[in-house]
Specification:
mainly alpha
C-alpha cells in the first residue's frame, strides 16, 4: 500500500508530459521487476523491496489505467469499461490464490510476472488518449484515434471541441491553483471519503486475511479452498456489475453495494455472537456465505466507484494530480485498515470487528445519497 502511494505520485506528473502509453510502459516494466525480485531474491529484505516495487507499479497502473479507460470509452459504456479494469484485478487475485494453493511463493511470482509482460506486448496495439493528444495540440492524431474508436458516423469535431471546452486551458492558473478551486476541493473531499469508507468496510482486510478469518470463525470448509471460492464469487459479481453499472448509475450501484455488505457483515456478527464458544459451531457454512456475499457485493460499487469517480470528476488537465491525491488518501486508509486488523480484533473480538465494518457500510449509504454526484453518461473531458 505504501509503495502504491509512491507509484501514483511518480506517475501523476508524467501523465501530461509523456502520455498515457509511456506511463503504462514504465509501470508495467516496474511490475515485471517487482515480481522477478520476489522470485529470485534470497533474503526477506530483498523480497520486501521487490514488493515495494510491485506496489509502485500497482499505484502507477491504477492511476494511468483508470484515466486511460475513462478517456477512451464512449460515455454510454464508460462505466462498463471501468468495471472491466476492476475485473482484471479480481482475475489476477484468482490466478494468484489458485496457483498459490499448491505452489511455492517464487512459482506464484513467476506466473504473475507473465501478466505485466502481456500488458507490455499489448502496447504495440493501444492508441494514445484522445483528450491528451488534444491538450498537447496534436488534433490530427486525436482525430485519427477517435475515428478508429467511434467510427465515421460519430461527431468527432464535437467531441474534440468538448475536450477543449471542459478543460479551458486558457483559463487555467496552473495545476495547483486549479486544484484549490472550491468546486474541485469539494469533489476531492467526496472521492477521498469514498476511498476511506471503502477500506474501512473491511474489504481489503478480508481479502488479505480470508484464510485466517475462516479459521477463526469456525468454518467447516478448508481455509485455502474457501479463499479461492470467495475470489471466484468476486469475479462473477464483477462480471454482472460491469453489465449494470451504466444502467444503475454510480450512486445507486454504490448504495446497493453498501446495503448488501452491511447486511452480510451484520449477519456474520450476529451469527458469531449467537454461536459463542461452541466447538464445532453450528451451521458452520454461514461464515462462508456471509464473506462470499460481502466480497461479491463490494465489486458492485463500493470498490470500483471511487476509482471511476477519481477520473470522471476531474478534467484531463488536472485528472492525474487530483486522482493522485485521492489515491494517496485511499492508500493510507488501506494501510491503516490492514495494520489495525490485529489490534481491533484483540480489542473488539470477532463480533465487534464485523459489527464495526457493518456500521461503516451503513454510514456509506446516506453519504453516497447526499454527497455523490452522478456522472453516468456525462461528458468528462
Amino acid at each position: 500500500m505504501l509503495g502504491s502511494t509512491v507509484g501514483a505520485w511518480v506517475v501523476a506528473p508524467l501523465m501530461m508530459r509523456l502520455g498515457r502509453r509511456a506511463c503504462i510502459l514504465g509501470s508495467g516494466s516496474t511490475a515485471v521487476l517487482g515480481w522477478l525480485g520476489v522470485a529470485l531474491l534470497p533474503e526477506p529484505v530483498g523480497i520486501l523491496v521487490a514488493r515495494g516495487l510491485s506496489g509502485m507499479a500497482a499505484g502507477g497502473l491504477s492511476l494511468v489505467a483508470n484515466s486511460y479507460g475513462i478517456e477512451l470509452a464512449d460515455p454510454e459504456v464508460r462505466g462498463m469499461m471501468a468495471m472491466v479494469l476492476n475485473l482484471g484485478i479480481l482475475l489476477g487475485q484468482v490466478v494468484t490464490v489458485s496457483v498459490g494453493y499448491d505452489a511455492r511463493y517464487f512459482i506464484v511470482a513467476l506466473v504473475d510476472m507473465a501478466l505485466p509482460l502481456a500488458l507490455l506486448l499489448s502496447l504495440f496495439h493501444l492508441p494514445e488518449s484522445p483528450p491528451y493528444l488534444v491538450l498537447k495540440g496534436r488534433e490530427g492524431e486525436a482525430r485519427e484515434v477517435l475515428l478508429d474508436l467511434r467510427g465515421r458516423c460519430a461527431d468527432l469535431e464535437g467531441e474534440i471541441q468538448s475536450y477543449k471546452d471542459l478543460n479551458r486551458t486558457s483559463e487555467s492558473k496552473g495545476v495547483w491553483r486549479d486544484l484549490l478551486r472550491p468546486e474541485v476541493l469539494k469533489d476531492l473531499a467526496v472521492v477521498s471519503t469514498l476511498f476511506i469508507l471503502m477500506y474501512f468496510t473491511g474489504y481489503q482486510v478480508i481479502s488479505a486475511n480470508t484464510s485466517r478469518m475462516f479459521e477463526a470463525a469456525g468454518s467447516s470448509l478448508d481455509d485455502s479452498l474457501a479463499t479461492i471460492i470467495v475470489n471466484v464469487v468476486q469475479v462473477a459479481a464483477a462480471v454482472a456489475a460491469s453489465l449494470l453499472m451504466d444502467r444503475l448509475g454510480r450512486r445507486r450501484s454504490t448504495m446497493l453495494s453498501y446495503g448488501v455488505m452491511c447486511a452480510a457483515l451484520g449477519g456474520l456478527a450476529v451469527y458469531l455472537l449467537a454461536a459463542g464458544e461452541q466447538d464445532p459451531r453450528p451451521l458452520a457454512w454461514v461464515p462462508l456465505v456471509c464473506l462470499m456475499v460481502t466480497q461479491g457485493a463490494v465489486t458492485v460499487g463500493v470498490n470500483p466507484v471511487p476509482f471511476i469517480l477519481s477520473s470522471e470528476y476531474f478534467p484531463t488537465r488536472i485528472r492525474a494530480w487530483a486522482a493522485g491525491i485521492c489515491y494517496t488518501v485511499g492508500n493510507l486508509a488501506g494501510f491503516l485498515a490492514l495494520q489495525l486488523y490485529t489490534p481491533m480484533l484483540e480489542a473488539l473480538g470477532q463480533v465487534g470487528l464485523y459489527a464495526f465494518y457493518s456500521a461503516v457500510c451503513l454510514a456509506g449509504v446516506p453519504f453516497t445519497y447526499f454527497f455523490v454526484r452522478e456522472t453516468t453518461g456525462a461528458k468528462v473531458g
